[in-house]
């Protein structure tokens, strides 16, 4: 199974042997349409690197094909070994609540939802179209970031706006990171040897982009990202939740819509608060050195995560597990500790020694007597896409 994640100027890919779920290697094509670009591929056989002008995604896909079957560092002996291609697609709107084999109707829906994801869906669509040309007759599967959250009720997805805005413009909460939240929820249930049917979890995907999801019996019932990925938690460069009136206040003081869009999406979050970096590692280092703005940024980040955990515990009523995943959730024990220090009254009791010793491995970091089990679960969206693709191509219940 070939997994493709196509961006506006990059194309990431990975090959999985299914149903074992074994990665044969992965690669990335960068600087597409920006003059001289490069492709880098890594596998147990070694690292493949090539540079040339990459004018468009067609050239990028051609480079991927060449790298896949390279005589020295290739991942495959023959392109005919690819029997399914899974594509990450950011936005499926209300059209799809699960992954689907791509046909003309699916392509039309992805195109229709470009207005909801103008930065991502066009690139995703291009990747699919080019893949169809280079792998004719091979089933192509769309795995939507938004699909997992289509089960959330209207009480969660509707905003307190005139209802005609939902009817006319489809303004509602969609949520993102769905593939990651679904993967780690399944992995946590498997690790705990529980049944999904009687398990409720809260999944915190914390990274440069961050979101948190309440999962009841395998279904998303609420999530922090909304109409766009800007809503919710404080992130690397995104503000997360703010008072909407701040936008009008700043517009009255000369800010343009474009400047505000850049401000909220690219200059806020940890970067804006700390004035140092959007990278949690840099902010944490500065905090340890006594930088008060860095310390404040970390506290704001943790506070926002705690607030959502509390809200989701109220809605789920019974919570069996709290999952940390994503770049920060998996690799920053100091932030996990900072978040959990005030959650004991909710039955979330961290074992701080276990948390520090665990580092970033799959494992339990709560005390034996904690009513809610706290876990670190490394995410793997590419493997989930491969599972979905395998399931749809071969009719397996693997996913």
Automatic annotation (TrEMBL):
The active site is at residue 145. Mg(2+). Can also accept Mn(2+). The keyword Transferase applies. This is Acetate kinase. It is found in: Cytoplasm. Keywords: ATP-binding, Cytoplasm, Kinase, Magnesium, Metal-binding, Nucleotide-binding, Transferase. The gene is ackA. Its main location: cytoplasm. Its EC number is 2.7.2.1. It comes from Spirochaeta lutea. Its cofactor is Mg(2+); Mn(2+).
């Amino acid at each position: 199974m070939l997994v493709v994640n196509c961006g506006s100027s990059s194309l990431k890919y990975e090959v999985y042997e299914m149903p074992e779920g074994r990665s044969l290697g992965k690669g990335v094509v960068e600087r597409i349409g920006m003059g001289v670009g490069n492709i880098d591929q890594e596998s147990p056989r070694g690292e493949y690197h090539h540079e040339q002008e990459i004018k468009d995604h067609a050239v990028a896909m051609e480079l991927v094909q060449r790298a896949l079957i390279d005589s020295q560092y290739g991942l495959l002996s023959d392109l005919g070994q690819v029997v399914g291609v899974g594509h990450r697609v950011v936005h499926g709107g209300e059209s799809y609540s699960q992954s689907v084999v791509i046909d003309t109707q699916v392509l039309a829906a992805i195109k229709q939802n470009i207005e909801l994801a103008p930065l991502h869906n066009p690139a995703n669509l291009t990747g699919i179209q080019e893949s169809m040309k280079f792998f004719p007759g091979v089933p192509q599967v769309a795995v939507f970031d938004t699909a997992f959250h289509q089960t959330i009720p209207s009480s969660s997805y509707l905003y307190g706006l005139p209802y005609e805005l939902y009817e006319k413009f489809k303004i509602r909460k969609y949520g993102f990171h769905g593939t990651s939240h679904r993967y780690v929820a399944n992995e946590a249930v498997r690790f705990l040897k529980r049944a999904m049917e009687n398990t409720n979890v809260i999944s915190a995907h914390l990274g440069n982009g961050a979101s948190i999801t309440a999962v009841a019996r395998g279904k998303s019932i609420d999530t922090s990202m909304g109409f766009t990925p800007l809503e919710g938690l404080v992130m690397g460069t995104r503000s997360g939740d703010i008072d909407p009136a701040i936008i009008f206040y700043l517009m009255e003081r000369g800010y343009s819509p474009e400047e505000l869009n850049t401000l909220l999406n690219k200059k806020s979050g940890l970067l804006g608060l700390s004035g140092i970096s959007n990278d949690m590692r840099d902010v944490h280092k500065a905090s340890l050195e006594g930088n008060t703005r860095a310390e404040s940024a970390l506290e704001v980040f943790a506070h926002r995560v705690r607030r959502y955990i509390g809200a989701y515990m109220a809605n789920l009523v019974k919570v069996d597990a709290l999952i940390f995943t994503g770049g920060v959730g998996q690799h920053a024990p100091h932030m996990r500790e900072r978040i959990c220090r005030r959650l004991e009254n909710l039955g979330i009791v961290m074992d701080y020694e276990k948390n520090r010793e665990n580092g970033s491995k799959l494992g339990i970091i709560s005390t034996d007597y904690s009513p809610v089990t706290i876990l670190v679960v490394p995410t793997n969206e590419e493997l989930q896409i491969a599972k979905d693709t395998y399931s749809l191509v071969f009719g397996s219940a693997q996913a």
